[in-house]
Write a structure and sequence with these properties.
The chain contains 9 helices and 6 strands, in the order E-H-H-H-H-H-E-H-E-H-E-H-E-E-H. The chain is of the alpha/beta class. It has 2 domains: 7-17 and 91-216, HAD superfamily/HAD-like (Rossmann fold), CATH 3.40.50; 20-88, no CATH class. The protein has a 6-stranded parallel β-sheet, sandwiched between helices. 40% of the residues are buried.
C-alpha cells in the first residue's frame, strides 16, 4: 500500500528555480574574465553531463565541471556567492508559487534541501519562503557540513515526521541517491538539470503542476 505523503522536501535549482541558464552564463562571463578560452557547454550538453553523474555541487564543482582549474573555480565562487542572484536574476519556474500554496493548504509540511547557499535561495524565492517550515530548510551553508541525506533526516526529525511519509523532489542523480540513503521516496522532475523522459524512473513529472497532482492524489480528501 502506498504511504500518505505528509512532508515534501525540495531541491531548489532545477526544481523550483530555473537557474541553469544563469549558471552557465556566469561560467561564460568568468571564462572571459580569466581568459581561459574554454568552450562552455550548451544547456543540452550540460544536462547530458549531469545525467551521466558528473559532480556539479557545491558551486566550486560546477565551475570545475565546465573546465575551470580548481584555484580559479574557488575564486569564481567568491563572486558567485556575492553577486549571482542580483546580477543574473534566475526566475522561478512557472507555477511554483501556486504549487507551494496548494500543498501548504492541504497540510503538507514543506522543506528545502539544497546545495546552494541560503542567501541565494532566499533572495530568489522571496515571499515564497513563507511556505516552508524554517526548521526544515537546509542549504550548503545552513548549517554547513551536512550531506543531503543527513539534512533530509534532520528535517524529518525537526518537523516530527518519519521517512516513510516523506518525499524528496529533485532533478539530479545525486538527489535520488540522497533519498535512497535517507530511506525516503523520490520524485524526479524532467524539466530541470539532470533527468529526462528517456530515464527509467518510476516516479517522474514534467511540470510543477504535475508535482501537486502527484502529492495530493495521495492525501486524504478535504471534507
Amino acid at each position: 500500500m502506498t504511504s500518505i505523503i505528509n512532508a515534501v522536501f525540495f531541491d531548489v535549482d532545477g526544481v523550483l528555480i530555473d537557474s541553469l541558464p544563469a549558471h552557465l552564463q556566469i561560467c561564460r562571463d568568468k571564462n572571459r574574465q580569466y581568459n581561459l578560452g574554454l568552450n562552455i557547454p550548451t544547456l543540452k550538453e550540460f544536462k547530458e553531463q549531469v545525467r551521466n553523474g558528473i559532480r556539479i555541487s557545491p558551486m566550486k564543482y560546477f565551475f570545475i565541471a565546465v573546465g575551470f582549474p580548481e584555484s580559479l573555480a574557488e575564486l569564481a565562487v567568491i563572486d558567485y556567492e556575492r553577486h549571482f542572484v542580483d546580477s543574473y536574476k534566475p526566475p522561478l519556474f512557472p507555477g511554483i508559487k501556486l504549487l507551494l500554496h496548494d500543498l501548504s493548504e492541504r497540510g503538507v509540511a514543506l522543506g528545502i534541501v539544497t546545495s546552494n547557499t541560503l542567501s541565494n535561495i532566499t533572495c530568489t524565492l522571496k515571499d515564497a519562503m513563507h511556505y516552508f517550515d524554517r526548521r526544515a530548510v537546509f542549504a550548503n551553508d545552513h548549517p554547513p557540513g551536512l550531506s543531503k541525506h543527513e539534512a533530509l533526516l534532520r528535517g524529518i526529525e525537526a518537523i516530527g515526521g518519519d521517512a516513510y511519509n516523506a518525499l524528496l523532489i529533485g532533478d539530479q542523480p545525486a538527489d535520488l541517491k540522497a533519498a535512497q540513503l535517507a530511506g525516503v521516496r523520490f520524485l524526479a522532475v524532467t524539466y530541470g538539470w539532470g533527468f529526462s523522459q528517456k530515464d527509467n524512473l518510476t516516479d517522474r513529472v514534467s511540470c510543477p503542476q504535475d508535482i501537486a497532482d502527484y502529492v495530493l492524489a495521495q492525501r486524504p480528501a478535504i471534507q
